[in-house]
Write a structure and sequence with these properties.
It contains 9 helices and 14 strands. Helix 7 (195-220) packs parallel to helix 8 (240-247). It has helices at residues 50-53, 55-69, 81-93, 112-115, 140-147, 152-158, 195-220, 240-247, 263-271, and strands spanning 4-7, 16-22, 25-33, 73-80, 97-103, 119-126, 130-139, 164-172, 180-187, 227-232, 249-251, 278-279, 288-291, 295-298. Strand 8 (164-172) and strand 9 (180-187) form a beta hairpin. Strands 7-8-9-10-1-14 form a 6-stranded mixed sheet. It has a 5-stranded mixed sheet with strand order 2-3-4-6-5, with helices on one face. A 3-stranded antiparallel sheet has the order 11-13-12. The protein is α/β, with parallel strands linked by helices.
């Protein structure tokens, strides 16, 4: 696939801002895990003063950050449903933005009152620069069920995590010729003990992104749909998640799979897109690789950011 894709590999929980050149248009993109109120506790952050953990204080600082950097597209993670519709969307609509939101899968099982506290992902965009053509979302637990192929680990480890990703196809308003981009905002499972879940969620996501790109190209009769990939991947630079995204492939024997028997369901996932797991070199007993078709590039410098939070 010939798409030139730009990705924001958000490996830690602080915002990333970048400016990129896309279809001849310069864009400013922000990716920001805003840390939902229910997770900002003294138990988790004992070094942080209570006034700085206060949601009323933090959401104002988040709003100020966004207003200062004035992104064309902002991808936010850990946004509570009530805060998206009751605060952020209202604050930014008056500044020329529109937005879409999807909560984690657990919201479907809850009363509307309690849904308001469930966090999720949102994409906020300048409606003078972009027209929303289509939105879609990825529920990793539902995809895990479909891809399990009898794997108890897929069902017991991956299916039980209700992380989601949100996708939006935009028409670039100022482009002289019909131009479209796909924005992807993902929040991958947090726990370091579940590196296999993180990697499989990422593979499931890229499989769905591939389908969405193909559908968009067909429906809109265009040759290419560049991708802006943002999110909180909860993964370090040497992880299987980042290797898979950056290199377009990862070994089925990667340490992050924890030697768990995912081989059959991963093969099913690959074959669903008309691909097979390749070997390198051409040796049936050699390592098998799983692929995605995009040429993703990180927008960051090769060196790690000078500040971070531990995952």
């Amino acid at each position: 696939m010939s798409s030139v894709c730009l990705s924001a590999l958000h490996t830690w929980s602080d915002f990333r801002l970048f400016v990129c050149l896309l279809t001849g248009i310069t864009l400013r993109i922000m990716s920001y895990n805003i840390l939902a109120e229910q997770y900002a506790t003294k138990k988790l952050y004992p070094h942080c003063p209570a006034w700085a953990l206060s949601w009323q204080y933090r959401r104002e600082r988040i709003r100020e950050d966004m207003e200062h950097y004035a992104p064309d597209i902002a991808c936010l993670q850990e946004v509570p449903m009530g805060e998206f519709y009751g605060y952020f969307l209202q604050q930014f609509q008056v500044q020329g933005y529109s937005g879409i939101f999807k909560p984690k899968s657990r919201a479907k099982t809850m009363d509307s009152k309690y849904q308001q506290t469930v966090d999720g992902c949102c994409i906020i965009f300048r409606h003078d620069r972009f027209e929303l053509i289509h939105q879609d979302w990825v529920e990793f637990n539902q995809l895990a069920i479909k891809s399990a192929d009898g794997s108890t680990d897929m069902l017991n480890r991956v299916m039980t995590k209700d992380n989601i990703a949100l996708c939006a196809v935009f028409r670039v308003v100022e482009s002289a010729v019909p131009s479209y981009i796909l924005a992807v905002n993902a929040h991958v499972h947090w726990d370091p003990e579940f590196s296999d879940v993180k990697l499989i969620q990422t593979m499931l996501l890229m499989n769905e992104v591939e389908k969405l790109v193909a559908k968009t190209k067909h429906d809109l009769n265009v040759e290419d749909v560049p991708i802006v990939f943002c999110g909180d991947l909860n993964s370090l630079p040497d992880s299987g998640v980042v290797e898979f995204l950056r290199n377009g492939r990862v070994s089925s024997s990667h340490a992050d799979f924890k030697d768990l028997p995912y081989r059959s369901c991963l093969q099913k996932l690959s074959s669903s897109q008309g691909r097979v797991m390749t070997t390198a070199p051409a040796d049936d007993d050699g390592p098998h690789f799983l692929h995605h078709p995009f040429a993703l590039s990180s927008v960051y410098d090769e060196e790690d950011m000078p500040f971070t939070n531990f995952t």
